[in-house]
């Protein structure tokens, strides 16, 4: 049996091989007795010429929290952007609906003004001075729009006397036209017109 003897350098080599995994995090240079070199610092000079202090690097927990906070903030911004886009679309639809209603109202108002202006002042004065039964007989013979326009411009008492002297079907048609042309909500759809005729 042969016993090997280790020299001084042999023991060091064996010692390094055995303890290398343990000493790896510390560093071989420090384990081997090399002098410790302080960490190098970078000095940052501010605008005033003074050395600016650097913030210490954040711990792993702080870095993790900051990364999560950034992602959460990005998600929150994305959600808010999506909600704003949806609101903008909804408001646009409501504006379009209001514009359509405004256009309908303006058309109705123009039609109403044309209707009321259709009967000249002179003709209205003539029918206002006539007896109700004579005016009713004449108005029953002209087209319904003109008759309705004339009656609408008369005083209420005169208009009711003339309409009561007319045949009921004719008076109903003229009254229906007056309601259509002068009431807000004015134009009736075809179904309502058909129901009113039946």
Automatic annotation (TrEMBL):
<protein>
    <recommendedName>
        <fullName>Magnesium transporter MgtE intracellular domain-containing protein</fullName>
    </recommendedName>
</protein>
<feature type="signal peptide">
    <location>
        <begin position="1"/>
        <end position="31"/>
    </location>
</feature>
<dbReference type="Pfam" id="PF03448">
    <property type="entry name" value="MgtE_N"/>
</dbReference>
<dbReference type="InterPro" id="IPR006668">
    <property type="entry name" value="Mg_transptr_MgtE_intracell_dom"/>
</dbReference>
<dbReference type="InterPro" id="IPR038076">
    <property type="entry name" value="MgtE_N_sf"/>
</dbReference>
<feature type="domain" description="Magnesium transporter MgtE intracellular">
    <location>
        <begin position="125"/>
        <end position="177"/>
    </location>
</feature>
<keyword id="KW-0732">Signal</keyword>
């Amino acid at each position: 049996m042969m016993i090997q003897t280790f020299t001084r350098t042999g023991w060091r080599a064996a010692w390094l091989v055995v303890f290398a995994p343990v000493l790896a995090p510390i560093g071989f240079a420090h384990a081997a007795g090399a002098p410790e070199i302080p960490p190098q610092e970078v000095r940052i000079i501010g605008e005033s010429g003074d050395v600016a202090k650097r913030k210490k690097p954040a711990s792993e927990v702080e870095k993790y929290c900051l990364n999560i906070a950034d992602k959460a903030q990005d998600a929150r911004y994305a959600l808010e952007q999506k909600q704003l886009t949806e609101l903008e679309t909804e408001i646009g639809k409501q504006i379009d609906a209001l514009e359509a209603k405004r256009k309908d109202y303006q058309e109705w108002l123009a039609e109403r003004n044309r209707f009321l202006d259709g009967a000249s002042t002179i003709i209205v004065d003539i029918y206002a001075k006539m007896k109700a039964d004579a005016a009713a007989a004449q108005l029953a013979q002209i087209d319904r729009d003109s008759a309705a326009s004339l009656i609408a411009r008369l005083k209420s008492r005169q208009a009711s006397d003339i309409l009561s002297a007319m045949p009921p079907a004719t008076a109903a048609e003229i009254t229906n036209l007056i309601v259509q042309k002068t009431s807000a909500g004015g134009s009736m759809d075809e179904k309502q017109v058909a129901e009113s005729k039946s």
